[in-house]
Amino acid sequence: MSRRTAASLAGIGAFGILGTVTPSASAIVGGAPVADGARPYVVQIEQQGADGTWSHYCGGALIDSRVVATAAHCSMWAERGKVKIRLVLGRSDSASSAGTVLTDERFTVHSHPEFSVATNSDLGLIVLDRPVRQTSAVLPPLGAEPRPGRVLRAAGWGRTDLGDPAKPSRLHEAALPVKKFDDEGGVWDKNFLCAGTDTVRVGPGDSGGPLFAPKVSGKAVVYGLVTGDTNTCSGLFTNLTDPSLWKPFRAPLASHGLSHVIPVERRPADAA
Fold this sequence. Notes:
Helix content: under 10%
Largest sheet: 7 strands, antiparallel
Distance between the termini: 27 Å
Structural class: mainly beta
Number of helices: 3
Number of domains: 2
Strand order of the largest sheet: 7-6-3-4-5-9-8
């Protein structure tokens, strides 16, 4: 999703008029298919159409056995009752019947109350009523932002070629180098993460999907979530290591007994 599109959605939401505008299907460009079971913490969020069928809406990341993180510009429409969503966990191929499907009576949606496309605030949390069996990822310590040059990965469903509208059902992922973010003279919040190249990148509508470091042993670490792009950044991500991002979520998470989900402050020995 481009920043212009995201800005349009935010404006429509502010006036309480949704119409038919929702995030488009996701795209991972220059990546490769993901094998079944390889990324159990990558969540597909589906929306229900007028005819009752379900289709891809946004991506997300299971960051605790009871919490899915996604973009606020995805979650806020569900929170306001403008879009009916369900979660699909543990399914790499959306054409299959594998995994776990959770409908909206099984979860509660919380979106950043001050979401703006220009600030590092594009975060929504979907709290499940009970733990799921899929392996979750973890969050890095607050302040442990990945350094430019580090290679992380992004995953999502949808088009793998921006010039071809066909969308594979199989989850794809790509390796993206982290870049120093150019805030274009203060147009954007400097806390955003930027990752990817012109040819290996997240694509239009790849909203809410995770930017993560896979682990050979232990759990994957999710550093960011797809929020859009700018004139100077082909892949813009909400920075989950930003301490200020989590302030509005402290009370909602505490009310669900999930205060432990908020990352702790970085220790001097923690490496980014």
